[in-house]
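Re: [ENG-882] Designed sequences occasionally contain unexpected residues at chain ends

Forwarding the minimal case from QA. Structure tokens:
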């Protein structure tokens, strides 16, 4: 794969790159109109494929929060056309890496030393590259290590990148009014945290301590003396990415074992720690040859305050969902309904969230749940399509819910997708029996 010698970091240079991408998409649209005349059956698919490729090519050259958006969108299997999901999924662990000279320059800037001065051996060729950083293999004192290096300028460009994305997001999600800023501030804060590698090492070490007792779940050790705000050194963990494993696995027992470990990991974090790994995409998990699950990235950790946790999970109880008085009260507590809502808005959003929650909380209602259930996931897909085309919803104010919904819902959607990829049948409340 071709390496990158520089990344545009200035607001103007990054905006220019996005404008060029927009021009390509516009040209694709013009070509599409011609294709509908000669090949109407395949025209739309060709347009999606070309747009997905051009948009991804533009984002991967920018890296940072721009590429992170693609990574997040790749998890939206029920919303985006397949061509976009497949192309954007590459952002999870396969993008053009930094060149060797730029890697050495980054090391010297933050350590005052070159890689060969810090490790017994350092492979200048990247093993994996994603949205915010890339990974190299190294050895020291007989240990095989993974060294994650952050791309230059990523942290400094977050605010300007989000400012460019904001108008599109406002239109896409029908966000109106001054309260919209709370959502963008939440995203900006989490992205800034993800670029703070010193914080990531602290969070990672704490997560290892808190969750290492979970069966069939492994973590690397992290080395603070070989880490700083832009570079992390950890144990090298052998295994294949979860997405690779799920595409070829035929062992149902193994899939259930991995799914149980993954489910227990998230439920223990959510209900016991009230602090959760909020970036559950396949690139953050490996499967070992012995059938264990490895969690390898803890840059995005979301604290779950009680004021949100309590009403959120009270709505996972069928009796509460089906009690109109309790249900309405919880919607106000979660800021889904507001004191300024019209009777029409109250009726519409109450019905919408009742339908959504009745479906999405089904895995919480049983002792076991089979995530290979095609009916369950087809209903989710149908519901997503239904509300994406709802003309009444577009007329409503899209500012709905506490800011905490952004990353908690992202966590559950990502987890459900991973569990579905595995096709795992799990004990839902098994995490309650786990001892630290």
């Amino acid at each position: 794969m071709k390496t990158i010698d520089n990344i545009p970091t200035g607001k103007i240079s990054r905006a220019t790159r996005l404008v060029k991408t927009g021009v390509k998409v516009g040209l694709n649209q013009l070509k599409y109109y011609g294709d509908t005349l000669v090949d109407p059956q395949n025209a739309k698919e060709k347009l999606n494929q070309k747009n997905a490729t051009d948009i991804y090519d533009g984002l991967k050259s920018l890296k940072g929060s721009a590429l992170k958006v693609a990574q997040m969108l790749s998890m939206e299997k029920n919303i985006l056309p397949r061509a976009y999901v497949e192309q954007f999924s590459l952002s999870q662990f396969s993008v053009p890496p930094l060149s060797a000279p730029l890697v050495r320059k980054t090391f010297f800037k933050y350590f005052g030393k070159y890689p060969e001065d810090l490790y017994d051996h350092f492979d200048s060729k990247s093993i994996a590259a994603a949205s915010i950083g890339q990974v190299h293999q190294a050895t020291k004192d007989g240990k095989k290590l993974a060294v994650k290096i952050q791309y230059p300028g990523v942290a400094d460009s977050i605010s300007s990148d989000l400012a460019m994305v904001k108008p599109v997001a406002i239109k896409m999600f029908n966000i109106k009014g001054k309260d919209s800023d709370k959502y963008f501030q939440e995203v900006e804060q989490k992205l800034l945290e993800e670029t703070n590698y010193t914080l990531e090492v602290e969070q990672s070490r704490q997560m290892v301590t808190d969750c290492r007792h979970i069966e069939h779940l492994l973590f690397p050790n992290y080395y603070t003396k070989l880490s700083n705000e832009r570079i992390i050194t950890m144990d090298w963990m052998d295994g294949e990415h979860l997405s690779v494993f799920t595409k070829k696995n035929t062992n149902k027992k193994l899939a259930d074992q991995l799914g149980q470990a993954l489910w227990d990991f998230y439920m223990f974090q959510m209900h016991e720690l009230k602090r959760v790994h909020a970036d559950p995409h396949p690139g953050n998990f490996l499967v070992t040859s012995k059938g264990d699950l490895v969690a390898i990235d803890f840059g995005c950790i979301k604290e779950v305050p009680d004021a949100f946790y309590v009403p959120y999970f009270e709505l996972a109880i069928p009796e509460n969902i089906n009690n109109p008085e309790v249900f309405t009260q919880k919607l106000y507590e979660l800021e889904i309904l507001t004191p300024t809502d019209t009777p029409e808005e109250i009726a519409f959003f109450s019905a919408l969230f009742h339908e959504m929650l009745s479906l999405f909380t089904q895995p919480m209602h049983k002792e076991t749940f089979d995530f290979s259930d095609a009916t369950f996931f087809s209903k989710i897909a149908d519901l997503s399509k239904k509300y994406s085309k709802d003309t009444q919803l577009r007329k409503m104010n899209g500012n709905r819910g506490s800011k905490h919904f952004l990353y908690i819902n992202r966590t559950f959607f990502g987890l459900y997708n991973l569990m579905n990829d595995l096709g795992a049948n799990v004990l839902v409340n098994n995490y309650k029996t786990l001892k630290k």
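QA comment: On inspection the terminal residues look reasonable. Residues 74-79 have pLDDT under 50 and may be disordered. Proposing we downgrade this to a documentation issue.
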